[in-house]
Amino acid sequence: MIIRRSNERGYADHGWLRSLHTFSFANYVDRNHMGFRALRVINEDRVAGGHGFGAHPHRDMEIISYVLEGEMEHKDNMGNGEVMRPGDVQRMSAGTGVLHSEFNHSKENGLHFLQIWIEPKQLGIKPSYEHKAFPSAERQGQWRLVASEEGRDGSVSINQDVNLYAGLFSAGEQATTPPSRYAWLHVVNGEMEVNGETLSAGDAAAFQPDEAINLTGKEAGEVLLFDLA
């Protein structure tokens, strides 16, 4: 297990946007942290009320947005326009090219979300979009599959051999970790004991294939687990 601490991440403060970068992104470049397998970006973004990302392009990337607090308004040139709330997972396959915008839907309250980029299995596909809600009851004390290549078990489908799980764990709560190949575990909030180490909000850990992952909640929180080829 290799730990990536929250305070080691890159940081950018644009006034209306404060962003923490687990991996190299934009002006933050760290050759030791360029990604993990197909996982390329985990940005933890906080957007002030009434602000957001204007229309901008993407191509050949699987983009997952995961709202933690507040409401995120999404629009794209495929005709999609939705407001995302905590527990929602949005997947956008940029493929040959897509134009989209993301704004804080509230004029007063802050927006806190994760944006995740995964390198695609196949380039040049037709752009597509998907949005699903995963109630907290489905994630409490267990791992809920929220994204997978085939869209299994009601998860969103992504153009890559990756399984993404989300779990909510109370203090003292344990759950059997799904079988994984290479794994990346990201603590969204709260505090977890993982293989005897304490991981707090923003901390992450990388695991080799078939390495045991023993997790127990120390302080109620949420965790994302990536199973990667």
From TrEMBL:
PANTHER family: QUERCETIN 2,3-DIOXYGENASE. GO terms for molecular function: metal ion binding. Residues 9-118 form the Pirin N-terminal domain. Its cofactor is Fe cation. Binds 1 Fe cation per subunit. Keywords: Iron, Metal-binding. Residues 145-228 form the Quercetin 2,3-dioxygenase C-terminal cupin domain. Fe cation binds at H56, H58, H100, E102. This is Pirin family protein. Belongs to the pirin family. InterPro entries: Pirin, Pirin_N_dom, Quercetinase_C, RmlC-like_jellyroll, RmlC_Cupin_sf. The keyword Metal-binding applies.
